[in-house]
């Protein structure tokens, strides 16, 4: 079972790559969804977040992501505290999903769609690390034009992530997402051929 990590900066086109791999038959494990799952109402993770960051981060029994973000964004110590609560639970839940996929199909290609690979999981035993790559100015434009952020918000979000250079440094495969979507899909198709060749 090839275990592939797919990462990339915000607005890098990672979701396009993930969807294409899913169309080919890959099992996609979405780190962002796992984070939401482990922080669900009543979960031990949510309880601990409330204990550490206060009741203002809970609204109607659920995590108020905007309120929590306002506390941790730009505060390295607070963010490290949050990661210390969330990341271990995400690691356990993601491994469970990897194991389930392997049990269901020993030859499955499992893709872990994980924005914070460099920050949290870079040393895990991935068979391949795939990086969606586009220049920061293009990603900035996408955030403003497609996601409705202000220019200042887009700049801050990009600046808060690790550098493109650090992501490229860990890549086994870089998919250039700066051109037409057809170009991104063609590169993804070649990646799939490589992964299934390795699997077979």
Automatic annotation (TrEMBL):
Amino acids binding ATP: 11-16
Annotated Gene Ontology cellular component terms: cytoplasm
Keywords for this protein: ATP-binding, Coenzyme A biosynthesis, Cytoplasm, Kinase, Nucleotide-binding, Transferase
Keyword Nucleotide-binding: yes
Example of a GO biological process term: coenzyme A biosynthetic process
Gene3D superfamilies given in the database record: P-loop containing nucleotide triphosphate hydrolases
Pfam families: CoaE
Intracellular or extracellular location(s): Cytoplasm
First-level EC class: transferase
A molecular function (GO) term: ATP binding
Transmembrane stretches, start-end: none
Matches recorded under InterPro entries: Depp_CoAkinase, P-loop_NTPase
Enzymatic reactions: 3'-dephospho-CoA + ATP = ADP + CoA + H(+)
Primary location: cytoplasm
Pathway: Cofactor biosynthesis; coenzyme A biosynthesis; CoA from (R)-pantothenate: step 5/5
Source superkingdom: Bacteria
Enzyme Commission number(s) from the entry: 2.7.1.24
Family designation: Belongs to the CoaE family.
Reported function: Catalyzes the phosphorylation of the 3'-hydroxyl group of dephosphocoenzyme A to form coenzyme A.
Protein name: Dephospho-CoA kinase
């Amino acid at each position: 079972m090839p275990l592939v990590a797919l990462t990339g900066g915000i607005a890098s086109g990672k979701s396009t790559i993930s969807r294409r791999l899913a169309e080919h038959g890959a099992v996609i494990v979405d780190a962002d969804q796992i984070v939401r799952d482990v922080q669900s109402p009543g979960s031990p993770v949510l309880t601990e977040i409330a204990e550490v960051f206060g009741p203002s981060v809970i609204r109607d029994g659920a995590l108020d992501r905007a309120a929590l973000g306002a506390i941790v964004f730009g505060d390295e110590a607070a963010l490290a505290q949050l990661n210390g609560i969330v990341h271990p639970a995400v690691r356990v839940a993601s491994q469970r999903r990897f194991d389930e996929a392997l049990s269901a199909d020993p030859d499955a290609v499992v893709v872990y769609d994980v924005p914070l690979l460099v920050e949290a999981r870079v040393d895990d035993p991935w068979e391949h690390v795939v990086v969606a790559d586009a220049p920061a100015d293009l990603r900035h434009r996408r955030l403003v034009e497609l996601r409705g952020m202000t220019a200042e918000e887009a700049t801050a979000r990009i600046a808060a992530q690790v550098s493109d250079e650090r992501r490229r440094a860990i890549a086994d495969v870089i998919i250039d997402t700066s051109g037409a979507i057809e170009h991104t899909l063609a590169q993804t198709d070649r990646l799939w051929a490589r992964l299934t060749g390795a699997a077979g």
